[in-house]
Structure formats: structure tokens, C-alpha cells
Design goal:
Radius of gyration: 19 Å
Number of helices: 13
Distance between the termini: 23 Å
Strand content: 15-25%
Helix content: 25-40%
Shape: globular
């Protein structure tokens, strides 16, 4: 079995290892590359958000409420609670005639350390709109409002909203709804357990499908990478460094998903110990390997944006480098895979 690991070194010695499983699916050819246990099942977490947002367009809610590309992008986001993210959340709620009190997601400290420090200094207390998932939740409320379903209880596993989203997830992953494991996500709504290869297949189809819903979501995410995560966050950085070539979406507990539309590929990653930073470093390394395999690279003027996500230093309390992060191993391409023509 091919190993892919993110390591942390100190004084030239590897101090910790984070094992990574990865599946790479070509939209037409199936599994083309892998690392570790690529067939394992895990929870999709926030890397499933574009597929949860799909019904917003397919069912007509996006058109009914005149949701623009910023609002569609935020429905797919795990944002940093920066002012622009909060404004777009508010615009979705206003468009559907709802307010913050209708959001079932609980507040939490912003994912951005900079925003979190500013919040502490100001003495402001975060509310549900500050949740990194507020765009997703606002989109679920839009779907409920469109169909005339009750807003109350929209996160419940038996609510019509969640039954509709399960249908979408099953369709995109090629699974039967009853074969998708269901759990409760950190933001109170339903999350999905399924194989990495099914996740990667969904991302491959998302990146290449000509259908209106995936095309609109794809274009929205590519047009607004800042809204997908935020300043200095890896999803945003990767999408800016490889404009039009990658759509990246992080999930909790070491999960990452991505579409590489120009290559027809979908990628799903799981870090075994759930380390969030390791998952981002692994995705950057995997994307770089795939682009190199196909003779593609980040534009020179943008490549430097990736530097902090390749081998970032480990700093002590005085900001002095004491070691670094690194990725060892890599993908193995299967015979007859995309890399072989």
C-alpha cells in the first residue's frame, strides 16, 4: 500500500506523523490514483456542502429568490466570519424573508485567528450568523421557504429539507440513500458517511458536468474563492493560485475534497487522526503532483501564495523556526489511468 504522510519535524527528527488516505477519480475512467486506504468510509463533513447546495438550484429556489453568485458561493462555504461573509449571509436571509433567529447553527469562535482576536478585543459575542456554516444553513432555509416546508426543525434527519439533500448526495455519489450513513454534524445538521472513492467521484462529476446546477455552483465558487474560506485560508489560497483549475473544499476531522475541472478529476482526502492543517497540506501536495503529472503549474505571479502551504515552519512563542511541516510519499497512478492517457 502506498503511503502518504504529513510530518512535523523538530531538530531534524520527525516528531509526529499524520497518515493520509486519498482517492483520485476521473469522471470517465474511474479510479486513476490512490494513496493509503482509498476505499475507506468516513464522514464527508463540510466537503459535502456543494452537493447539499445543489437542490437550491435544481428545485428553483435560487431563481425564485434571485440569489446571485456570491450567495451561491457562500452556500458552499466554510467561511472565516469576515465582514463580507456576514454581509452575504444577511443578504440570503433578507432575500427569503428570514432572519438570524431562524438559523439553527450555533455560534463558535471564527476560523480565522485574525478575526477571532479582533472579536475578543471588541468584546463582541458571536451569534449564529458568525458560524462558518451560516451560508449553508441560510440556503437550507431558502429551500424550505421555497417548498413551503416549516423552517422550524429544518436540521432534523426526518425534515423534508434533509430528506431532499440526502437524495442529492446519493445521486452525486452514485449510492443508494439507504447506504449512506447519517450522523449529526458540528453545526447541528445532517452529515454523511460514505467511501472516499464515492466522494472523489462526486467531485469529479461536479467539476465536469454540463448541467445547470453544478455549472452555476462551480462558476460561483471559482468566481468568489474568498467567500469559500477567507483571507489566508487554504481553500481560498489554492483556488487563487490555480485559477479555474481547482475547486477546493475543506471538511472537519481531516477531510478534504476538490475538483480539478481541466483534468476531469475529483479528489477526496482523509487524514487518519483528523488533523485539520495536515489535510490542507496533503491537498496542496496532491494537487501539485496531479498538475505536474499533466504538465500544469501555478502561474508564476500566484505561485508564491502557496509557499505557506507547502513546507510551513513550526514556530516557537518568539516566532523562531524550530522545525517544519512536510509531506512524504505520494500518489500512485493505476495502470490505464488518466495519467497514462
Amino acid at each position: 500500500m502506498t503511503e502518504l504522510e504529513v510530518v512535523r519535524t523538530r531538530g531534524g527528527i520527525i516528531e509526529s506523523r499524520h497518515r493520509v488516505a486519498c482517492a483520485v477519480i476521473h469522471a470517465a475512467r474511474g479510479l486513476v490514483a490512490r494513496a493509503g486506504e482509498s476505499s475507506q468510509s468516513t464522514w464527508w463533513r463540510s466537503a459535502a456542502k456543494p452537493f447539499q447546495a445543489m437542490a437550491l438550484i435544481e428545485d428553483g429556489a435560487a431563481d425564485r429568490f434571485l440569489l446571485d453568485s456570491e450567495q451561491l458561493a457562500l452556500a458552499c462555504a466554510s467561511h472565516s466570519s469576515e465582514p463580507a461573509h456576514l454581509r452575504v449571509t444577511d443578504r440570503i436571509l433578507a432575500a427569503i424573508g428570514a432572519d438570524e433567529a431562524d438559523l439553527a447553527c450555533g455560534p463558535h469562535p471564527p476560523l480565522s485567528a485574525v478575526v477571532q482576536r479582533a472579536l475578543v478585543r471588541s468584546g463582541q459575542v458571536p451569534t449564529p450568523r458568525w458560524s462558518n456554516c451560516s451560508g449553508k444553513h441560510a440556503a437550507m432555509l431558502a429551500l424550505a421557504r421555497h417548498h413551503g416546508w416549516p423552517l422550524e426543525g429544518y436540521t432534523g434527519i426526518n425534515h423534508p429539507v434533509q430528506r431532499r439533500l440526502l437524495q442529492s448526495v446519493a445521486e452525486w455519489t452514485g449510492m443508494r440513500p439507504e447506504d449512506v450513513a447519517l450522523g449529526v454534524d458540528g453545526c447541528t445538521t445532517v452529515c454523511y458517511g460514505l467511501p472516499l472513492e464515492a466522494m472523489a467521484g462526486a467531485w469529479a462529476r461536479f467539476g465536469t458536468s454540463p448541467e445547470p446546477a453544478p455549472r452555476r455552483l462551480r462558476e460561483a465558487m471559482l468566481a468568489h474563492p474568498y467567500l469559500i474560506a477567507g483571507t489566508g485560508r487554504p481553500c481560498t489560497v489554492m483556488m487563487e493560485a490555480w485559477p479555474g483549475q481547482i475547486i477546493a473544499k475543506i471538511g472537519a476531522e481531516g477531510v478534504y475534497g476538490a475538483a480539478l475541472p481541466t483534468l476531469g478529476l475529483g479528489v477526496a482526502i482523509k487524514v487518519s487522526d483528523g488533523d485539520l492543517k495536515a489535510s490542507a497540506l496533503a491537498m496542496v501536495a496532491v494537487a501539485r503532483q496531479l498538475f505536474r503529472e499533466f504538465g500544469m503549474a501555478a502561474p508564476t505571479d500566484l505561485a508564491e501564495r502557496l509557499d505557506g502551504w507547502i513546507e510551513p515552519p513550526i514556530l516557537n512563542t518568539r516566532g523562531e523556526a524550530t522545525g517544519h511541516h512536510g509531506v512524504i510519499g505520494g500518489l500512485v497512478f493505476l495502470a490505464g489511468g488518466a495519467a497514462n492517457g
